[in-house]
Design a protein that fits this description.
The complex is a heterotrimer.
Chain A: E1 13-16, E2 19-20, E3 23-24, H1 26-42, E4 46-52, H2 56-64, E5 69-74, H3 83-97, E6 101-105, H4 108-120, E7 125-129, E8 131-134, E9 140-146, E10 151-156, E11 163-167, E12 184-187, E13 200-206, H5 214-217, E14 220-224, H6 234-244, E15 247-250, H7 252-256, E16 277-281, H8 287-290, E17 298-303, E18 316-319, H9 322-339
Parallel strand pairs in A: 1-4, 1-6, 4-5, 5-12, 6-11, 7-11, 14-15, 14-16, 16-17, 17-18
Antiparallel strand pairs in A: 2-3, 8-9, 9-10
Helix pairs in contact in A: 3-4, 6-9
Chain B: E1 6-10, E2 13-15, E3 21-22, E4 29-30, E5 36-38, H1 40-56, E6 59-65, H2 71-80, E7 84-88, H3 98-112, E8 117-121, H4 132-140, E9 143-153, E10 157-164, E11 167-174, E12 177-181, H5 193-201, E13 205-208, H6 210-213, E14 228-234, E15 243-245, H7 249-262
Parallel strand pairs in B: 1-6, 1-8, 6-7, 7-13, 8-12, 9-12
Antiparallel strand pairs in B: 2-5, 3-4, 9-10, 10-11
Helix pairs in contact in B: 2-5, 3-4
Chain C: E1 3-9, H1 13-24, E2 29-33, E3 47-49, H2 51-56, E4 68-78, E5 83-89, E6 100-102, H3 105-119, E7 122-125, E8 131-135, E9 138-144, E10 147-156, H4 163-167, E11 179-188, H5 191-197, E12 204-212, E13 220-226, E14 230-238, H6 239-244, H7 249-258, H8 260-266, E15 270-280, E16 291-292, E17 295-297, E18 306-307, E19 312-313, H9 315-335, H10 340-343, H11 345-352, H12 355-361, H13 365-368, H14 377-390, H15 400-410, H16 415-428
Parallel strand pairs in C: 1-2, 1-10, 2-7, 4-12, 10-17
Antiparallel strand pairs in C: 3-6, 4-5, 4-6, 8-9, 9-10, 11-14, 11-15, 12-13, 13-14, 16-17, 18-19
Helix pairs in contact in C: 1-3, 1-9, 9-11, 11-12, 14-15
The chains are: A alpha/beta, B alpha/beta, C alpha+beta.
The complex binds flavin-adenine dinucleotide (2 copies) and adenosine monophosphate.
């Protein structure tokens, strides 16, 4: 491994801009905000790298979200993400421009790309960071949960350049968009040959589901797990959620069983939620699930097994059969609502 | 029909995540004495490879890099139906991050040779990077399909159903190809009685050091890992002082709702 | 496909003894246990009679994980708050072939399985055998999850519920009246405290059986054994009675634990673990046939268990029957094969090793012990009599026989009934 003799040779904060079906991924926008902050501290600037096809408007958009420069690599062969040509583009440009920091979204493609690339150019890559800062020595402090969120590790890449990290989606806010922001779009020719095209994406099957982020916005979430046994039983949760004015979410096991669309998944590889009340129904409480909901204001656990780890982190626990408990809760809540006096306006 | 492929499955032994506790005194994770297991997604990788073998023949090798105690993970994989196992173990490998790990595994895979498919798990529960699989593909300069929930072996190519945020992509790649298996994508078979008997008879595990494989000591271990863990902050969650209700459902629900109402949790 | 000469299912005392005997005789043997390690899933009261071990491994005591030799036997009848006990003190009980000792099953079973392995048997753990595999109508191996391993002969030593014996058609499905439920907790006491409290020397141990209020007057009884620095405290209660009276075994155990006679013995102790298990109660009636073509039953799987109130024997019979099964197989091997005809010698060997003789001697015991009066009326009666006899409060003492008659009358048992029960008991014992 060759170590840089002079680290000051490396300048600038880069963001891999992921275009997905004509849109910039949210996480790419979020990263532009992070990159701005880091560049400010380092006294450098922010560049985006956008390999795709017919995406010039997205390059402009990236500038409006905070990039000073976007390297645009357009080729019809780059229209859909595949590992090898994208890794080639990144490696080529990194070799040419020598950035100090390269950031990826910890999306499936972001990890696929980062993992391949870091082995090719032999430098460090920290995965799934939730905080990115510059430490006293000017190094990138890459902070990420470890051991199922029971601890936060500070990862440094002191000797090698580049310092690379992927960031967990939806942890960082999307920066405000400024249509007046100026920056340059630099077209970079990277030759993609037939030899670079090993993978063919032969088909795409869209997941059934919804648009938007209802579970992140919901004040009350009723989440179901493998204990629900069957997709149709999610009705019970919908009824309860409706009574409470909340939304339904799910564990990965319920999602991977095909019961619930992926957008509803809470956890390390799903979404991070922080509702006022999180009701976990038939969810054991694996660390990867807790990762996505442990900061909820109040947590209610409903489980048959009194040893379920969810009981260890809840505010209220009910040991019982969800098929009896949940309908009963819905019923009693409705009853309470009916009994509750109309609030006096003056109070 | 062309003979089935040789698959190499990379697995790691990890501490059971659920058993990890924070030491209340030192505020660090207690790792000693914690029972370990095969990294759960790696079981799905093993099952995927074994299903290819069930369907097309060929053979499944299993590879791990780690201390000799990782032998028990290899034994379990063999008992599930793998044909041979390889343990890469060497003191100088200690503290390797994903760069040297991917490098060492690639070199070992290269030494084993004759492979068409390499399987990994989507990520480990202890390092949780998911970088080693694609890293191996980068080193070996071969194709990769990550987050696979299904594979189809096509003789001279492989097709994989790749799970992404908004749906499923089907990728087709030439061989050799690295596949990383999605956690929960299949139901891993338990070790079988005949499998355990084969393990007991012995002779299925090959142990190699870095020198055996020809791994450059200047490329591995903690000193050659680009990243370091500078410090670890333990996340201390607030003690929520759970109120637990049990017993007859109707009364328990009433008690629960009363308590929530009393704490002001139910009012909007 | 893997093939062995013999497969033994279950590495409990019966299975390990059988595998040991087979391996010693040069039979290529596989011993399969579902637990992660032998003994991990086992539970029992805590006492083992050593005579079959003497026969099997004469110097077994050298490394056998023995806690204490039992040198004091106690029998106590409990009412709700009093106890009438009989103590038999005999240091010589702790020596020779007749000795019994206390032990932990996790250690004991692991030790015995190790002996079988050392003798040459292959031990596989963590695999639960589903059923016997048949070829041409005969047992020809075992099957788990569709994976078959062949063998010329299979021994089912898989304990009280013996899934294997059922899969081979030698037993029917279990019904509650055939079983009792056993529960046990291990209570930790500092060794010094324990030895002082029970008045024991370093290696000496005490055994207790309790009748009456111990089992909430349901059929059954309690036990307590001393280990080095723990007590094994537990109950065996008829599952039929529990079902009929809708009683939870946990509730009975709670009350038993709090009985003054027990609370005194366990005072200051810390409960380390808790477990429950089924105990077959019908003895030989459970499984009239113990062998078939290529197939033998041993230990609890064959119903070789003797519960006569004052002693509880299972492990010794399991070991003895395992040894007999091994011997039956080696004889059948010499005779040319493992047909039912050749394996029939098993029954004779069981007799020679005193397994079935002892069981037959007490053949009536389980039925006698099913008499509910023994568990509810009589222990209470005895305590009331004792209370009258020992209460000297100046109101005038009566003769013992008068007290007894009056109490019997109060308890609504006719003297004739009582006499018949006692005679029945005497005959059964
Ligand atoms: C790399 C990786 C990433 C992961 N990411 C995520 C993630 O993002 N999100 C996530 O959720 N998981 C994730 N997991 C998976 C996680 O480890 C668990 O497997 C998963 O959370 C378990 O889901 P569950 O609790 O629904 O199912 P189970 O663990 O099967 O639990 C079901 C629960 O239901 C209870 N139950 C059953 N019947 C009833 C009944 N009638 N009434 C009441 N209770 C009942 C059971 O007691 C049990 O506790 C990840 C794992 C890995 C390895
Ligand atoms: C509460 C209680 C108290 C007792 N007290 C005493 C006492 O003090 N003294 C005494 O001598 N006896 C006592 N016994 C009886 C004694 O425990 C049994 O008689 C004895 O354990 C029988 O030995 P075994 O080898 O036949 O069966 P077990 O000890 O039951 O062993 C069977 C083995 O087979 C394994 N197994 C079961 N099914 C399968 C399968 N399908 N595949 C693979 N492996 C399988 C089990 O895990 C187990 O290890 C007591 C029993 C109970 C329940
Ligand atoms: N030490 C190792 N030995 C073998 N395979 C490994 C090792 N570490 C990681 N892997 C493989 O790489 C995958 C991803 O690991 P990670 O990048 O650590 O999350 C795992 O699921 C394994 O298949």
């Amino acid at each position: 491994m060759t170590l840089p003799k002079d680290k000051t040779e490396y300048r600038g904060v880069w963001v891999f801009l992921e275009a997905r079906r004509g849109r910039l991924r949210d996480v790419s926008r979020q990263l532009l905000g992070v990159a701005r902050g880091l560049a400010q501290t380092r006294g450098s600037d922010v560049s985006g790298v956008l390999p795709s096809w017919n995406v010039e408007p997205l390059a402009r958009e990236a500038i409006e979200f905070g990039a000073d420069r976007v390297y645009l690599v357009e080729d019809p062969r780059l229209e859909t993400y595949t590992s090898r040509p994208y890794a080639k583009v990144m490696a080529t440009l990194i070799g040419k421009h020598k950035p100090e920091i390269v950031l990826f979204g910890a999306s499936k493609n972001g990890r696929d790309l980062g993992g391949r690339l870091h082995a090719m150019i032999e430098t460090g890559l920290a995965a799934d960071c939730v905080k990115l800062e510059i430490d006293a020595d000017g190094n990138l402090d890459m902070i990420r949960p470890s051991f199922g969120e029971k601890s936060l590790a500070h990862i440094l890449c002191k000797q090698h350049r580049q310092q690379m990290a992927s960031a967990r989606p939806n942890v960082f806010p999307i920066p405000p968009r400024d249509p007046a922001r100026k920056g340059e779009v630099v077209r970079e020719p990277v030759e993609i040959t037939d030899a670079d095209l090993d993978a063919k994406v032969v088909s795409f099957e869209e997941r059934r589901g919804h648009k938007g982020n209802p579970i992140e916005d919901a004040k009350i979430l009723v989440a179901g797990g493998f204990g629900l046994r069957d997709p149709k039983n999610f009705r019970l949760l919908e009824d309860l959620a409706k009574e409470l004015g909340g939304a339904v979410a799910a564990s990965r096991k319920a999602v991977d069983a095909g019961w619930v669309p992926k957008d509803y998944q809470v956890g390390q590889t799903g979404r991070t939620v922080r509702p006022r009340v999180y009701i976990a129904v038939g969810i054991s409480g694996a660390v990867q699930h807790l990762a996505g909901m442990q900061e909820s204001e109040k947590i209610v656990a409903i489980n048959l097994d009194h040893n379920a780890p969810m009981f260890e982190i809840c505010d209220y626990g009910l040991v019982g059969d969800l098929f009896q408990v949940v309908p009963e809760m819905t019923r009693q809540l409705a009853e309470r609502k009916a009994r509750r006096p109309v609030p006096v306006a003056a109070r | 029909m062309a003979p089935g492929p040789r698959s190499i499955v990379c697995i790691k032994q990890v501490p059971k995540a659920q058993e990890l506790q924070v030491d209340p005194v030192t505020n660090t994770l207690k790792r000693v004495g914690v029972p370990s297991e095969i990294n759960p997604p790696d079981r799905n990788a093993l099952e995927m490879a074994l299903q290819v073998k069930d369907q097309f023949g060929g053979e499944v090798f299993v590879l791990t890099m780690g201390p000799p105690v990782f032998t028990s993970a290899l034994e379990e994989a063999l008992a599930m139906g793998c044909d041979r196992a390889f343990l890469l173990t060497d003191r100088i490998l200690g503290g390797s991050d994903t760069v040297p790990t991917a490098h060492s595994l690639s070199e070992t895979i290269h030494k084993i040779g004759g492979y068409q498919l390499i399987f990994c798990g989507e990520e480990t529960t202890d390092a949780s990077t998911g970088h080693v699989g694609p890293g191996i593909a980068g080193h070996l300069d071969c194709a990769q399909i990550t987050y696979c929930s299904e594979v189809q072996f096509l003789g001279n190519r492989v097709r994989g159903k790749r799970s992404v945020e908004d749906g499923f992509e089907t990728w087709e790649c030439p061989l050799p190809c690295v596949i990383t298996a999605n956690f929960l994508s299949n139901r891993p078979r338990p070790p079988s009685l005949s499998g355990k008997i084969r393990v007991k008879r012995g002779g299925l595990i090959t142990t190699w050091s870095c020198a055996d494989v020809g791994i450059d000591p200047g490329k591995v271990g903690i000193r050659n890992s680009p990243t370091i863990v500078a410090k670890v902050d333990t996340v201390v969650l607030p003690d929520r002082k759970a109120k637990i209700f049990r017993g007859e459902p109707k009364a328990a629900v009433t008690a629960l709702l009363d308590a929530m109402a009393a704490d002001g949790v139910l009012s909007r | 496909m893997e093939k062995f000469e013999a497969i033994v299912v279950g590495a409990g005392p019966a299975g390990s003894a059988a595998a040991y005997g087979l391996a010693k005789a040069g039979v290529k043997t596989l011993l399969v246990e579902r637990g992660k390690a032998p003994g991990q899933k086992a539970m029992f009261g805590g006492r083992i009679y050593s005579f079959p071990l003497h026969a099997m491994i004469p110097d077994f005591a050298k490394d056998c994980p023995i806690e204490r030799y039992v040198t004091r036997e106690n029998m106590a009848f409990l009412s709700d708050d009093t106890a009438l006990s009989v103590t038999f003190d005999a240091p010589k009980l702790g020596t020779g072939a007749a000795a019994s000792f206390t032990a932990y099953r996790a250690k004991f079973d692991a030790w015995l399985a190790k002996k079988a392995e050392e003798a040459g048997a292959m031990l596989i753990t963590g695999i639960r055998v589903d059923k016997v595999h048949r070829q041409g109508g005969k047992v020809a191996g075992v099957a788990t999850n569709g994976d078959v391993v062949l063998a010329d002969v299979v021994i089912a030593a898989d304990g009280a519920l013996s899934q294997l014996a059922r899969s081979a058609g030698l037993r029917g499905d279990p019904s509650p009246e055939e079983y009792s439920v056993g529960v046990k907790e291990t209570v930790e006491l500092p060794q010094k405290v324990l030895e002082e409290r029970f008045n024991l020397d370093e290696k000496e141990g005490a055994a207790y059986v309790f009748a009456g209020a111990a089992s909430a007057s349901l059929r059954g009884g309690g036990f307590l054994y001393t280990n080095k620095a723990t007590l094994s405290l537990g109950l065996v209660v008829s599952s039929e009675d529990l079902a009929v009276t809708r009683t939870e075994i946990g509730t009975v155990m709670d009350r038993f634990r709090r009985h003054p006679a027990i609370a005194r013995l366990t005072k200051g102790g810390k409960v380390l673990e808790w477990s429950a298990h089924l105990v077959p109660e019908l003895g030989r009636a459970m499984s009239p046939r113990t062998y078939d073509d290529g197939f033998l039953l041993a230990g609890d799987a064959a119903g070789f268990l003797l519960n006569v109130g004052y002693t509880f024997r299972g492990v010794d019979l399991a070991i003895a029957s395992g040894m007999a099964a091994a011997e039956a197989i080696t004889r059948a091997r010499t005779a040319g094969g493992y047909s039912a005809g050749n394996l029939a010698v098993y029954e004779r060997l069981l007799k020679e090793r005193q397994v079935t003789t002892d069981l037959e001697t007490f053949a009536q015991a389980p039925f006698y012990l099913k008499n509910p009066r023994l568990f509810s009326v009589y222990p209470k009666l005895l305590n009331e009599i004792a209370e009258k006899v020992y209460t000297i409060d100046g109101t005038g003492q009566r003769k013992l026989s008068e007290v007894a008659r009056a109490e019997a009358k109060a308890a609504k048992v006719s003297p004739v009934r009582m006499l018949l029960d006692l005679l029945g008991g005497a005959r059964a014992m």
